[in-house]
Structures are given as structure tokens and as C-alpha cells.
């Protein structure tokens, strides 16, 4: 979808058929040009708002078809609420809501951006946020719907693909929107990875797909099984041994802080289980198709490196994703097996469906051993227990460093991807003590499954500032929201991009 920004003028849109949307503040408050449009239509806007009890509250919409006095096919009113309620997130929400309202109505539309006096953002900044929200909502994954495409050829349906925002400071808005558009590209790339079925995205193909990041300045290195065995990644390889699709580890490097005194990178680590049957500890059939998105953490890491490189962030960053397929077979890992991780620590595998932590263990160790990072953040659809605790509204946050946890939480709130920090301590750590090895991969059955998983990972980070984000409840949206259509959410890309921008860019 394309966006353009132009000076606010009714003359440019009223003399021809088309769609015009206008912002309306609380109490049906129209801006100067909105009032002029109301006059040109003989008060049609005012009457329609009164009849429909439209007040201009946040995200409220009202559509007028073919209003008298103008050539427009329709006018859409979008509520922005009270001046003090207007924020970047509220405007993004209104952008997404506007897209959902305009899509299928026509292929092109204009939006007149006028905010009430006292709003914290000016018109140009508001236009950028609205455009960003609309872009995020415009995502579709329908490449395999051939019947729809055949019907579309016979009877083309309109789909919004261009929105012009009419606003004071249009040139400023256009410049500011550029980096946002690149972040949206990165989010869409991550959503595509998660949306693909497991017969298309598997360890080798996902690794190959990451090579596309070279076009934005990311160095891509793919570690194949022979190299992984040489490195001693027995925990990760144990998960993969039941599948015909062999494991890969992908290392993504972006160096944007060439002049900085501290060259240590930020390290982002992602769980990439491209399909998770549970292995020998096999899952039930109901809902197993969802396990194609058990690689959501790896997609977030790929999207984050894409975003940082595309917008030329002044930071050094490395992304490491462990890619495996967890399958039952004659060669699969068994409950009771003991594997040796890259760290040298041994792990008794009690449950083969607690495989993501085994993958992350080796990737975390590799990250600190090879890159000596400033900090490490891992993301994983790690536990169903986090959904029991937090539902689908927050991701779980665990950390060994308070400042890191606070900064991640702050970044999450600013982009609408909230985190909730859960506790960690030695009492939980004792849950994974094993009589046969250095540790076991699940607790003794006393609950706190998400915390126990985090305690397991903590054994592979040493003293490096580290955070673990469990995204099992937020990686896939069960229904549409303002800026996330039903499906893959790419949760974490915006969060980590904001975290870097606010706390770590040179």
C-alpha cells in the first residue's frame, strides 16, 4: 500500500468522484476544512452525525454515500476523541480502523487530517502515525487462495492501495514516514515467515529466506549440521534428530555504529521450531496445525534485524536463530535421553515437547561465546503456561537485570506491545535439578511452567545482562485488531526497534 502527503485543500478532491475521509474530534468537532465541507454539502455531515449519534470518540466511524453538493462518492468520518486522548498509539489505531473501513470501497482515498486545539501532536506527526497504522492493518496473507484469485479476475473488486493524507507540513510528514515504512516492511517480512505452512518454511528454507536481508545491509551466515556438531550444539541437534529436515543456525549481523566507542553488539536470539509435533512426547491432534508458528521468535529476530538495517539504525546488532523441526520417528530423541549442550552442561530430556529451551540454550551460549554482546534478549513461543498466566494480552518477561527489564517494558508500552515481568529465584531453579545430569528440561510438576523454563535458560547466560520474552500468547492473533489483522502478529519487532532507538542508538 502506498501513502502520499499533500497540503490540505478541498479543491483538490471535491471536483472529482472519489473517497474523502476527515478526522472529527469529540463532540462532533470539525476542523476548518471539515466545516467548509459541511457547508458545501448543505450541512449533510452535521445531520448525519446527529442522526447516527456519532460523537467523534476514538475509532468511531461514519460513512456518508454520495453527499449532495460535491462529486465525492462517499465521505468517511473518523473519530479521534478528545484532545488529551490523542497519542501516537491512538492515531495508529485510527489509521488501522480507517483502512478497514475504506478497503473494498475503492482503490484510492484521501484523508483530511485536522486535530483539535490542545492535541499533543501536530498535524504532520499525526499523519505519520495514521499512515503507519493503516499500513500495518493492510497486511494480507492470501497467496494460496486460488479460488479467490480466479473470482477476482472475472469480477475485480476494489481494494485500497493508495491513501493521500492532506495535512499542514506535508513535506515534513513525508520525510518522517520513510523510516516507519521500512519498519512496516520488516514487520510484514516477519509475518510472512510465520504465516507460511511448514511444508514451505522448514529449517533449510527459512535459513535461505534470511539471505534476502543482505539487500538492506545485513550479513548472513548459515551454520549447517556439520558445523553445529563441531561446535558441540548437542541440545539443539537432539531436537532436530527425528526430522528429515536438518537443523540450521542463522547468524545475522548488522554494524551501524562504526564510530562508537563501544563496539559490542546487542544480541537477539530466537527460537525457530518450524513445526512442533512435540516429538515422542507428541501433542494432541486438536490445534496442532498452529504449531507452524512455533518459530515466531526467530521471525521476530529476523524482522528486528531487517528493521534496524533498513532504517540505518546507529547500533551494532547480531541476531541468532536456531532452526529445527521437532518430529517423532525412529531416530527421534526419547524421554530420558541425556544430551550435552555447547556449554558443556548436560541435560536430561524428560519431555521432548519442551524443546524450545534446548534450542535456545545452545544459541544463547554461542551468542555470548562468539560475540561478547552488551546484552542478550531471546524471544520464544516457549510455554503454554504463559497463556494461562497472561492470556493473549501481554508477553511474559524474565530478566537477570532490572534496568534491561525496565527499558523493555517501557518500549513495549510505547508501541502497544506490553510485557509483564514474572519472578525468578533459586527456589524455582531447584525444580530442574536432575539426579542423572546437570539439569532436566522440565520441572517436577509443581506448576510455574513459564518461570521454570526461564530458569533453565538462565543457566546458559552467565553474567551477561539478559532478558527472555515468552511470546506464546501473542505471536498469533485470533481476531482482527486495529493494527494487527487476524494471523501472524510479528510481536516484538516494533518493541525491539523502539528499545534500540530509545536506549542504545549512538
Please describe the topology of this protein.
Layout: E1 2-6, H1 11-14, E2 19-25, H2 32-40, H3 44-52, E3 61-65, E4 74-81, H4 88-102, E5 108-112, H5 123-137, H6 146-154, E6 162-166, H7 170-195, H8 203-209, E7 219-223, H9 225-231, H10 234-240, E8 248-255, E9 266-276, H11 296-310, E10 316-326, E11 338-340, E12 346-348, H12 356-371, E13 375-380, H13 385-390, E14 395-399, H14 402-415, E15 419-421, H15 426-429, E16 439-440, H16 449-458, E17 466-470, E18 476-477, E19 487-488, H17 493-503
Parallel strand pairs: 1-6, 2-4, 2-5, 5-6, 9-10, 9-13, 12-16, 13-17, 14-15
Antiparallel strand pairs: 3-4, 7-8, 8-10, 11-12, 14-17, 18-19
Keywords: Aminopeptidase, Cytoplasm, Hydrolase, Manganese, Metal-binding, Protease
GO cellular component, one term: cytoplasm
EC number: 3.4.11.1, 3.4.11.10
What does this entry look like structurally?
The chain is of the alpha/beta class and 506 residues long. It folds into two domains: 2-168, Leucine Aminopeptidase, subunit E, domain 1 (3-Layer(aba) Sandwich), CATH 3.40.220.10; 182-503, Aminopeptidase. It is 36% helix and 20% strand. It is built from 17 helices and 19 strands. The protein has helices at residues 11-14, 32-40, 44-52, 88-102, 123-137, 146-154, 170-195, 203-209, 225-231, 234-240, 296-310, 356-371, 385-390, 402-415, 426-429, 449-458, 493-503; strands at residues 2-6, 19-25, 61-65, 74-81, 108-112, 162-166, 219-223, 248-255, 266-276, 316-326, 338-340, 346-348, 375-380, 395-399, 419-421, 439-440, 466-470, 476-477, 487-488. It has an eight-stranded mixed β-sheet with strand order 7-8-10-9-13-17-14-15, with helices on both faces. Strand 9, helix 11 (296-310) and strand 10 form a beta-alpha-beta unit. Helix 11 (296-310) packs across helix 17. The longest helix is centred in the middle third of the chain and has 26 residues, at 170-195. The mean pLDDT is 96.
Amino acid at each position: 500500500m502506498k501513502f502520499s502527503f499533500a497540503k490540505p485543500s478541498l479543491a483538490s478532491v471535491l471536483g472529482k468522484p472519489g473517497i474523502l475521509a476527515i478526522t472529527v474530534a469529540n463532540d462532533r468537532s470539525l476542523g476548518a476544512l471539515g466545516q467548509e465541507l459541511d457547508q458545501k454539502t448543505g450541512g449533510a455531515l452535521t445531520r448525519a452525525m446527529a442522526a447516527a449519534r456519532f460523537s467523534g470518540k476514538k475509532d468511531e466511524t461514519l460513512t456518508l454515500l454520495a453527499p449532495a453538493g460535491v462529486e465525492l462518492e462517499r465521505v468517511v468520518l473518523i473519530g479521534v476523541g478528545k484532545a488529551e486522548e490523542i497519542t501516537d498509539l491512538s492515531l495508529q489505531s485510527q489509521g488501522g480502523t480507517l483502512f478497514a473501513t475504506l478497503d473494498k470501497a475503492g482503490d484510492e482515498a484521501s484523508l483530511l487530517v485536522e486535530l483539535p486545539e490542545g492535541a499533543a501532536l501536530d498535524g504532520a506527526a499525526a499523519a505519520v502515525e495514521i499512515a503507519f497504522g493503516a499500513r500495518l492493518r493492510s497486511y494480507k496473507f492470501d497467496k494460496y487462495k486460488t479460488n479467490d484469485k480466479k473470482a477476482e479476475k472475472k469480477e475485480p473488486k476494489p481494494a485500497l492501495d493508495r491513501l493521500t493524507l492532506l495535512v499542514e507540513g506535508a513535506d515534513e510528514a513525508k520525510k518522517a514516514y520513510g523510516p516507519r515504512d521500512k519498519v512496516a516492511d520488516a514487520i510484514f517480512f516477519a509475518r510472512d515467515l510465520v504465516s507460511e505452512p511448514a511444508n514451505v518454511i522448514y529449517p533449510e528454507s527459512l535459513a535461505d529466506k534470511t539471505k534476502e536481508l543482505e539487500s538492506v545491509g545485513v550479513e548472513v551466515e548459515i551454520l549447517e549440521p556439520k558445523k553445529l556438531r563441531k561446535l558441540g550444539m548437542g541440545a539443539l541437534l537432539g531436537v532436530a534428530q527425528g526430522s528429515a529436515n536438518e537443523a540450521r543456525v542463522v547468524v545475522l549481523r548488522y554494524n551501524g555504529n562504526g564510530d562508537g566507542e563501544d563496539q559490542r553488539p546487542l544480541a537477539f536470539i530466537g527460537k525457530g521450531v518450524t513445526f512442533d509435533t512435540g516429538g515422542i512426547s507428541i501433542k494432541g491432534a486438536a490445534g496442532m496445525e498452529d504449531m507452524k508458528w512455533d518459530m515466531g521468535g526467530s521471525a521476530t529476530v529476523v524482522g528486528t534485524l531487517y528493521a534496524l538495517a533498513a532504517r540505518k539504525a546507529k547500533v551494532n546488532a547480531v541476531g541468532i536463530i536456531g532452526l529445527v523441526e521437532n518430529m517423532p520417528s525412529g531416530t527421534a530423541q526419547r524421554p530420558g535421553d541425556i544430551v550435552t549442550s555447547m556449554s558443556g552442561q548436560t541435560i536430561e530430556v524428560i519431555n521432548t515437547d519442551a524443546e524450545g529451551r534446548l534450542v535456545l540454550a545452545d544459541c544463547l551460549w554461542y551468542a555470548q561465546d562468539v560475540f561478547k554482546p552488551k546484552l542478550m534478549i531471546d524471544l520464544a513461543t516457549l510455554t503454554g503456561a504463559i497463556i494461562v498466566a497472561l492470556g493473549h494480552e501481554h508477553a511474559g518477561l524474565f530478566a537477570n537485570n532490572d534496568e534491561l527489564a525496565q527499558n523493555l517494558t517501557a518500549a513495549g508500552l510505547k508501541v502497544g506491545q506490553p510485557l509483564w515481568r514474572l519472578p525468578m529465584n533459586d527456589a524455582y531453579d531447584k525444580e530442574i535439578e536432575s539426579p542423572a545430569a546437570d539439569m532436566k528440561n522440565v520441572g517436577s510438576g509443581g506448576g510455574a511452567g513459564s518461570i521454570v523454563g526461564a530458569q533453565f535458560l538462565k543457566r546458559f547466560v552467565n553474567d551477561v545482562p539478559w532478558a527472555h520474552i515468552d511470546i506464546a500468547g501473542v505471536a498469533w492473533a485470533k481476531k482482527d485488531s486495529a493494527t494487527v489483522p487476524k494471523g501472524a502478529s510479528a510481536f516484538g519487532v516494533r518493541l525491539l526497534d523502539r528499545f534500540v532507538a530509545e536506549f542504545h542508538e549512538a
